[in-house]
Structures are given as structure tokens and as C-alpha cells.
Amino acid sequence: MCDHDLIPPRADLTEYQWIDLDENLPLSAAGTAAGGPRTVGRRTLLGGAVAGAALSVLPSGGQARAQSPGPESAAPARAAATPFPLPAGPDADGEYAVLVTGDAGTGSATQYAVTAAARQICRTEGIRLAVGLGDNIYENGPESDHDSEFSTKFEEPNTGIDVPWLMVLGNHDCSGLIPGSGGNPSRGDREVAYSARSSRWHMPARYYSVPLPAGPDPDAPPLVEFFALDTNPVASTVMQTDPRYRWNGPYMREQRRWLDSALSSSRATWKIVLGHHPYLNNGKHGSAGSYDGFEIGHYTSGVHLKELYEEVVCGRADLILSGHDHTLQILEPTVRSAGTRQAVCGASGKAGDGRAHGDHPARWQDFSQLGFMVLKASAGRLTLDAYTVDIETSAATLAHSVTTGEPVPQAV
Question: What is d(CA 288, CA 280) in angstroms, rounded to the nearest whole number?
Fold first, then answer.
């Protein structure tokens, strides 16, 4: 979300309650991400009778439904794509180099400038894998698994970065009536289904893990393993009304059990958790448990995501990579995080407001520029390089680099 996005007037409203509180909401929210002409259409916030009509195209219940997209979202049907292969081993120097982007999917000139800069760094760094930290399709997420916005906001901007992208779901990908609310998690099933249509897009499930081998020995522990989460049901700005996706519903219980087991059984040297919403954050949206200034309720504050991070992830993973806040931050591991480092990389399509809103110890942070990061993993070290991008020239500048030489000790 960004300055023009919507913050609920109080915690844990349903979307209908939020709309009912402000009958002028549809007019104030209509318009483009860049502040262009305000129009009323499928991709604007809908209220009143228009909101009722929107329900006919939004899935309900725990399972995604096949939708018939309108003309503006239809794209030619494509046969199943041959995916770009995951790296079979580190490079000649024993290292994996991974591009990290977040909150990129605007389809704007800004996104194209960032990806142009990243494309050049991918060539020089030998990138063979990329990460997309959510908000992949602004503002409302896809209308189907063949929505044209997959092309205009992912495939076309990333032309030339021909590697698998490990994708996670963001709040805008799971919009309900209100863009960015995360109020319709089942919408994310469309992004899972899109994996079959794209060579780049890798989202085999709503949450999943990807181990990368240390070498040719199939029995050797992986060098690095990624654990991709769906944080939306416990960090939505509205109350979840579908019982499956409630904060303590079956979906989150299943995901928590999976994550606990996957982290416990992983033998990887480096364990990296990918989740759209951050645990710690010095940007505008704040940290889990107090998102956007809320400290009550089961949803808007993100209190149950805070519990998930603290009870399952912290002290077991080496790094949490998140987006959501449109900033670039490399925070320090602390006692609170039990040695796990948090990095926020959500400035690949939209910029922050230029100032810090928190005081968590940081190695480096930037609240105004756009950019991306590069993660490098080898047997002896984990490095995170932060790049800022000059939008006028599409040039990347290495702004900061941090290296750690010791994995987080695993709790007995």
C-alpha cells in the first residue's frame, strides 16, 4: 500500500462495514495509482449498488471459481508453458545469486525503469533465480488466471530476466471490494494457476518451499532453502468473512503446521522466509502487531502474523524477506528476532514517503528511492546487496551490502 491507498477508520471492520461508514469512499478512491483521471470501473473501489454488482465477479468460499473475465482483462489463451528450470547447483564460485523485488506490479514507467536496471545487474551478477515479494498485480489482483495484467505487469516488464521467479501473494493480489484489503484470499488461487501459463512465474501453491542444492550429491543438505508464505489471512486490513481464511481457521492452521514442520526438517545451511507483510519494519506501515497504528483486533494490526513469526520463524530462519512497505531496509538481528534478520524490499514499483516511522536497529535503510536487492548465498556467507534506481536513467547504484558468516543456530 502507499499514500494514496486506504487505511480503515478502525480495526477489524468487514468490507461492507467500512464502505457503510463513508458513503463518499468510492469517489475518494477512484483513479489510477499515478493520480491520473478518476474513473469508475471494475478496477476502482466499488460502493453501494456498484459494490453489489462486483460481488458477482468475486469468488466466495474457500475454493477459487473459474471466472469469465471482462474485455479489459481478457488475454489470448496460452498453452501450458515450459518453466525456466530452478538452478541445479551453485555457480563456479559455489554461490547462488538471487534477484529480490517487491510490490512491483504496477505496469508503470517506474516499474519498467527498475526492471531495466535490475536486468543489467542480473547480467553482471549471473542471476539465475528471482523473488517477487507480493503485490504482483496492482491494484485489485487478477480477474482470472489469463488476465492480460499478468502480461502488462509481470511478463513484459521482466522481459530478459529469464529465470524462475519465486512469487508470494500480497494484499493487493487478494483484494476484495476494497483494493489492497486482502479481503478475498481465494483470489490468490488465480496466481497459483498462472504458474502453468508462464515460464517465469513460480507459485506451485499458495505457500511452498524451494531448496537449492549445494552440489551434485542428491543426499547432501541444501545450500539454501526458501519458504514462501501467504500472510494475507492474518494481516488483511479487513476482517475475513470466509471461515476457511479466518485468522484461526483451517487454512492458517494448515499453513502454520506446514511451516513449523518444514523449518524443523530442513537441513539447509541458510533458511530464508518470504512473506509479503514484514515482521519488523521502520516504514509507514509499521511492524506486525501494530500495522498502521492499530494494536487491537485479530486482523488489521497483524497481531497473529507477529505470533507466527515469533513462535515459528524467529531463531530458526536466517532471514525474513518482505515487501508491503515501499521502502528498502536491511534491519539488524536483535534479541527480539532471536538472531533472524529482517529485510524489507518493497520499492520495485512504488516509492515510500521519505521518512522513518520506526526505530528498529538498521544496518541501512532508504525511505524515498526505488530499487531492489540481490541475495548471494554460499557455504560460508550470506550477502544482501541493496540497489537504488535512478528512474530517469534506469541506472542502478549499489547503496549498501551486508554479509553474515554464521547461520542462525538452530534451537534444540
Answer: 7
Please name the residue that has the C-alpha cell 536491511.
330
The CA distance from 94 to 5, in Å, is 43
Is the whole-model pTM more than 0.85? yes
Indicate the Cα dihedral angle 6, 10, 12, 17, nearest 10°. -80
CA geometry: angle 215, 218, 224, nearest 5 deg: 55
Q: Which residues of 168-190 are buried (b: 16+ CB within 10 A; e: fewer)?
A: bbbbbbbbbbbbbbbbbbbbbbb
CA distance 343 to 11: 26
Specify the DSSP element, H or E, that contains 229: none
- Summarize pLDDT for 83-139 with one digit per residue, the tens: 999 999 999 999 999 999 999 999 999 999 999 999 999 999 999 999 999 999 999
pLDDT tens digits, one per residue of 252-268: 999 999 999 999 999 99
Nine-digit cell string for 359: 526505530
CA dist 25 and 48 (Å) reads 10
Check residue 21 and report its DSSP letter.
H
Q: How far is CA 293 from CA 273, 283, 285, 303, 389, in A?
A: 25, 12, 8, 12, 30
Return the DSSP state at 309. I
User: Half-sphere exposure (CA, 13 Å, Cβ side) for 63?
Assistant: 2
